Amino acid sequence: MLYLSLAWRNLWRNARRTLITLASIAFAVVLALWVSSMNRGSHQLMVDNLSRFHTGFIQLQEPAWLDEPSLDHTLTYDPALQQQLLADTRLDYLVPRLETFMLAGGAEQVRGAMVLGVDAAAEQQLNGLQERLIAGEFFQPGDGRAVLTEGLARRLQLTVGDELVLLGQGRFASSAAGLFEVAGVVRHPLRELDNQLVYLSLPDAQWLLSAEQQVSTLLLTPHQLQQTDALVSSLRQSLDAQRHRVVPWQELMPEVLGAIQFDLAQQNFVLGTLYMVIGFGLFGTILMMTLERTREFGVLISLGMQRYRLSLVLLLETLMLTLLGVLAGCLPGWLLLRHFHHNPIQLGGDMAQVFEDMGMGLEPILPFALDADLFITQGLVLFVLSFLICLYPVLRVLRLDLMTAARS
Amino acid sequence: MAIITTHGLSKVYQAGKVPVHALRDVDLSIEEGEFTSIVGPSGSGKTTLLNQLGGLDRPSSGEVWVDGCNISALKDSQLIDYRLRHIGFIFQSYNLLPVFTAAENVAFILLLQGEKKDRIRQRVSELLTEVGLGDRMDARPRELSGGQQQRVAVARALASRPRFILADEPTANLDSQSAMKLLDIMEKMNREHRMTFIFSTHDQRVIERARRVIRMVDGAIESDQVQQPEPHQA
Ligand SMILES: Nc1ncnc2c1ncn2[C@@H]1O[C@H](COP(=O)(O)OP(=O)(O)OP(=O)(O)O)[C@@H](O)[C@H]1O
Ligand SMILES: [Mg+2]
């Protein structure tokens, strides 16, 4: 108590200087929160979008699929597997897909296409695919109809009601050929995929490809994105690795992970620089506080205050200064982030175009993450910083020569 | 019985190339209950001697014994603790913590000693009343005059119940009226509590109040006299 009150009052001996220091710490915290929250938010959105429209968050595959994605390496998707997987409460729902490459033809044109047998309801839940319909409607399971992506439909010069021919190879080198009515056209947000996708209902695809009960990939969707890693490791433990391979989005899209890591490295460099500047400011304040009070330190030690106790007071002063600064930054920072978390910045004009051109299906918005660990990290960094800075006055007190102090 | 004795106490400062002999072979003995003044021209070694007696600095040679303890042989942290429990200090200036009130400045030393809170409160108010500041307990140092600040320092020095109190030119920054008032209080403490005081001074009127006057020249004791102090007319 004695030390706390001494430290607290010492802090306000030069109120103006303390306030300026607090303001600079608070400013750094707000800035750091802003940058890291915006990055986290856009990374999450990117992973979320790409996972939903592309690979899923976690995939279950037959072990050989990754090296050779052919129909010979498919997974048996039966109620037993379904039940086993859904026993984990972190898992929300499953999205089965059977995919292969085939020739797709209309009346005039023939193109290579990626044929996806899907459970339309599950896809809808994963990525709201049905809202992306620009013409027609979705098929019912096994009704012999297909949905094309817009780019492919244009190339094949097909519209709703036309007939689509699919030609290729089924499972175990059987031949596969089928005629499907175009039920609808969707605009897929990933440009690459928009030019080549044919959706069939899962039973139709399985029939076409002679792959009863088979899927090439089973997408597992956790309730929360943050649970992905934990879910992956427990699935890897519970499933037979000989038969099932569990692949998280990081492995499915290594280039995305790389981009995120590069982004974070950049962010950390910028924030590191910011903290260095703030650190020197803080150090300056502490240095002044220490130098001005050399004589007083001498008096205190002369009177009988142990050096380590005095050091403790100085440590408390630094910690209080930082704690106040962090709080003063976190509160407005939190309000700011909360606002932008609920009202993401809408990018207009050129920026929106840039997003569009990236073709990654990103909506032109800047979302903000509001994760607790963002705040905790700022606090921790500054505490470590203040401990380091505090070493100087503490060392000074430990070494202080009373005669020199008395004459200063 | 002597509380302090020094044997062949010497202090040499190395200032630049020439060594400065601040104390030369001082043999001194202070009895309990003394009211002793150390006088001498500037640079004669008064401060150096007091620092040695208070364990604030170490001798170049010789020893300082306090109550049968060779304080020159104590480790730094032991010495700090020794000062806390056995020696009272009044410095010339910057005595008090500016962030604490008069009462807190006095209480501080007791808190360091590990005294109980409720006993501290009572003792602090007794002491401050004794030095005539019973009504200024909650004043910060900057709200007090120099003389009042020194009186708080006296109260603080007494608070720790030391064996003796060292005061290096306690009146140097005071006008003569405040100086006399401070001396009155020190004298009263000496009389009533048998508290031993050793103080240095340049001021002739302060010297006259002492019962023993140790005169220093050039780091050595030139004369050591017991005198009848002038009665103070307030
Ligand atoms: N820390 C030090 N380093 C070097 N020389 C010192 C130091 N302290 C004191 N001296 C020298 O020792 C001598 C005695 O100094 P001291 O301060 O004891 O004198 P003093 O009698 O207290 O003088 P004053 O009346 O001016 O306070 C002086 O010559 C001084 O310059
Ligand atoms: Mg002196």
TrEMBL record, chain A:
Q: How does it sit in the membrane?
A: Multi-pass membrane protein
Q: Does the keyword Isomerase apply?
A: no
GO biological processes? lipoprotein localization to outer membrane
Protein location: Cell membrane
Show where the ABC3 transporter permease C-terminal domain sits. Answer: 269-401
TM regions (residue ranges): 269-291, 312-337, 374-395
Q: Which parts of the sequence belong to the MacB-like periplasmic core domain?
A: 18-236
In terms of Pfam families, this protein maps to: FtsX, MacB_PCD
Task: Cite the InterPro entries for this sequence.
Answer: ABC3_permease_C, Lipoprotein-release_system, MacB_PCD
Q: Name one GO cellular component term.
A: plasma membrane protein complex
Its keywords, alphabetically, are: Cell membrane, Lipoprotein, Membrane, Transmembrane, Transmembrane helix
UniProt keyword NADP, yes or no: no
Family to which this protein belongs: Belongs to the ABC-4 integral membrane protein family. LolC/E subfamily.
Q: What is this protein called?
A: ABC-type transport system, involved in lipoprotein release, permease component
Print the organism lineage: Bacteria, Pseudomonadati, Pseudomonadota, Gammaproteobacteria, Oceanospirillales
Automatic annotation (TrEMBL), chain B:
Keyword ATP-binding attached? yes
Q: What GO annotations for molecular function exist for this entry? A: ATP binding; ATP hydrolysis activity; transmembrane transporter activity
Annotated protein name in UniProt? Putative ABC transport system ATP-binding protein
Instruction: Write the record's keywords in alphabetical order, separated by commas.
Output: ATP-binding, Nucleotide-binding, Transport
Q: Which GO terms describe its cellular component?
A: plasma membrane; transmembrane transporter complex
Every copy of the ABC transporter domain together lies at: 4-234
Family designation? Belongs to the ABC transporter superfamily. Macrolide exporter (TC 3.A.1.122) family.
Q: Which Pfam families match?
A: ABC_tran
Can you name the source organism?
Marinospirillum alkaliphilum DSM 21637
Entry keyword Nucleus = no
